[in-house]
Amino acid sequence: MKTTLHIAAACLFDEQGRLLLVRKRNTRFFMLPGGKREPGEDALTALERELFEELELRLGAGALQAFGQFQAPAANEADTWLQADIFRAALPHAVQPAAELEELRWLDTTQHLPDDLAPLLREQVLPALARLQSLAATS
């Protein structure tokens, strides 16, 4: 039986347009910062909490813009499906890994993608970002 986890995550971009990825301790795959929603939390509240726990990051009011809802298999949990609310924001300053994070990586989404990206990121979010960038380029 598959379990569904409801998560909230963020596409955080630096001034060069690179996407921030994180890898949690004792895991292989890189993913967007964020995490599971607690009972009674909405997606935005969960994401704000997770960003502070993982990166000690607090963004100003209105900084996180809704990007979309996506589904994919979980990278690090067997027989688990993710229902993800994804947001976007510019990263206002450098961050360091905290809490359960082992490593940060900056991804240039225009370059070859590494093999160690979580399915949600590789199969859903990055293609949606590419479509958005393509639309912006034609406007």
TrEMBL record:
CDD domains: NUDIX_Hydrolase (cd04690). Transmembrane segments: none annotated. InterPro entries: NUDIX_hydrolase-like_dom_sf, NUDIX_hydrolase_dom. Residues 4-130 form the Nudix hydrolase domain. GO terms for molecular function: hydrolase activity. It comes from the Bacteria. Its cofactor is Mg(2+). Keywords: Hydrolase. PANTHER family: 8-OXO-DGTP DIPHOSPHATASE-RELATED (PTHR43046:SF2), GDP-MANNOSE MANNOSYL HYDROLASE (PTHR43046). This is NUDIX hydrolase. It comes from Ectopseudomonas mendocina.
